[in-house]
Specification:
The complex is a heterodimer of chains A (about 240) and B (about 230).
Chain A lengths: L8 H4 L1 H36 L4 H15 L3 H11 L6 H9 L2 H27 L3 H9 L4 H31 L11 H12 L2 H35 L2
Helix pairs in contact in A: 2-3, 2-6, 2-8, 2-9, 3-6, 4-6, 6-8, 7-8, 8-10, 9-10
Chain B lengths: L7 H5 L1 H6 L9 H27 L4 H15 L3 H16 L5 H26 L3 H9 L4 H31 L11 H12 L3 H35 L1
Helix pairs in contact in B: 3-4, 3-6, 3-8, 3-9, 4-6, 5-6, 6-8, 7-8, 8-10, 9-10
Classes of the chains: A mainly alpha (about 240), B mainly alpha (about 230).
């Protein structure tokens, strides 16, 4: 360690810098695609979880418990290595024509995160007083329309901080995609390390980038809390 | 048979899944997963307690310093912490350190940061009057913390600790990346050897993790109800 020669230039310019930048781009793309899909899926699962139809509710409950209580890494390996036997042939054919590593990572991250998001949405909805739903129903809205126009707009406002938090987790979790060969930031940092033996510099650079992203997201959450939620909390 | 899946590969390797090469070799599989999780959780309890206490310190330097450490660790992916450990520990200690211990230290460092937030929230959740009453009976701030505040706070934290244990079990799967033969690593080994049954193997492994984690999730919910009930009397 003492006679280690630091060479920061390799991670601030040139080929290896470009590797890290491309890794960062993949990380951002993977996180954004997955958070969008997880939000949509999470919303559906949350609605199903609150449904009055028992089998639908049970299915959603099982979905939540199963995917929340299984490691993301195992889910990732399952979708990457093992999903071909349970998916219909048409979907398999379509998947292999895509960037399959990326697609598998999106599927795993989306399903895993959607289970957490669904719970966040559900607790947001549950924090809206029951009378709101009753009032909406008695003024003639259907269950779905009451949700759509009355309950969800209020619930979403409360759900945004936990959603931002899920985005932060998702961004950090996306690093696991390196295990199935998605060339995101962590993968590229490791590549730089194995090509140059300058692991200290490569990991420092990647760490700084991750921290910058985390602190930006945390900052957004604080900002939202101050600007949007504070006026409502005051009442 | 579920949709043409063949679970023979699972039954034939059952002992390998649960115990690794034990008794002919070192222990692995589910047993090692639980071992890693328990040891790391015990250590992170200590780490989290220390960091949590430091983060509510009245000394600003200590408070800010510990908060900076906590936030930095929380801002990093666990995988990054693991790589740092693998990379730095041998350099700092000037020699090889067993992979098991590297992963335990990485999990401990990572989880301590999360635990410290639980501890901090637990301490701040105890009404201020308790500390004032304790200090006015002649206890020092430190004594009041140890004898009055912490025992109550720790009790409220029990469900969160159990939840953290569930996260820990899930996190031990990352040990696979550095070649520690816990459940996920064992599964990929069997998959690499047999080639034809990835679906069956990873489904089985997911179910095993699920059973363990779900049991503890339910325990945590039960404790939450139970402890809340006792408190209200």
């Amino acid at each position: 360690m003492l006679n280690y020669k630091f060479d920061w230039a390799i991670v601030t310019s040139g080929k290896y810098f470009e590797w890290l930048v491309s890794g960062l781009q993949v990380t951002i793309k993977l996180s954004l695609v997955s958070i969008t899909l997880s939000f949509l899926l999470g919303l559906i699962i949350a609605m199903m979880r609150m449904s009055h139809v028992r089998p639908v509710r049970w299915f959603a409950h099982g979905y939540l418990e199963f995917f929340r209580n299984t490691p993301l890494l195992v889910q990732l390996l399952f979708w990457y290595f093992g999903s071909y036997k349970i998916l219909p042939q048409a979907i398999n054919d379509w998947l292999v024509r895509q960037d399959f590593e990326f697609a598998a990572a999106v599927i795993a991250l989306t399903i895993y995160t959607s289970a957490f998001i669904a719970e966040d949405i559900r607790s947001g909805v549950r924090s809206i007083p029951k009378e709101q739903m009753e009032a909406a129903r008695s003024s003639g809205f259907s269950y779905i329309r009451s949700m759509q126009y009355i309950i969800l707009p209020q619930a979403v406002r409360l759900t945004i901080p936990p959603l931002i938090n899920q985005f932060l987790n998702l961004m950090k979790n996306s690093s696991l995609a390196m295990t199935i060969g998605v060339a995101e930031l962590m993968y590229q940092a490791r590549q730089v390390e194995s090509y140059t033996f300058k692991g200290f510099e490569a990991f420092s650079a990647a760490t700084l980038v991750y921290l910058a992203m985390s602190f930006t997201i945390t900052g957004l959450m604080t900002l939202y809390d101050r600007v949007v939620l504070r006026p409502f909390k005051g009442r | 048979m579920v949709g043409g899946l063949d679970f023979h590969v699972v039954w034939e390797n059952l002992s390998y899944f649960f115990l690794g090469r034990y008794p002919k070799g070192p222990i692995g599989g589910v047993a090692l997963t639980l071992y890693l999780a328990v040891v790391s959780l015990a250590l992170s309890f200590l780490g989290g307690l220390i960091l949590g206490l430091l983060s509510v310190s009245r000394n600003r330097l200590i408070k800010w310093g510990s908060t900076a450490i906590i936030q930095t660790i929380r801002g990093m992916p666990l995988l990054m912490v693991i790589f740092w450990m693998f990379f730095l520990l041998p350099a700092l200690l000037g020699g090889g350190i067993k992979a098991d211990w590297t992963i335990i230290l990485a999990l401990t460092l990572f989880t301590s940061a999360y635990m410290s937030e639980i501890v901090r929230a637990g301490i701040l959740g105890i009404p201020k009057g308790q500390m004032e009453a304790a200090v006015s009976t002649g206890l020092s701030h430190g004594q009041a913390m140890i004898h009055i505040i912490l025992p109550q706070a720790l009790r409220n934290m029990i469900p969160s600790f159990v939840n953290q244990f569930v996260s820990m079990i899930k996190d031990t799967s990352l040990a696979f990346i550095v070649g520690v033969s816990e459940l996920t690593q064992v599964a990929t080994q069997i998959n690499n050897r047999t080639m034809l049954y990835p679906t069956e193997i990873f489904l089985f492994v997911a179910v095993v993790y699920f059973i363990i984690c779900f049991a503890f999730t339910e325990l945590s919910r039960w404790l939450e109800r139970h402890l809340a009930y006792r408190k209200s009397i």
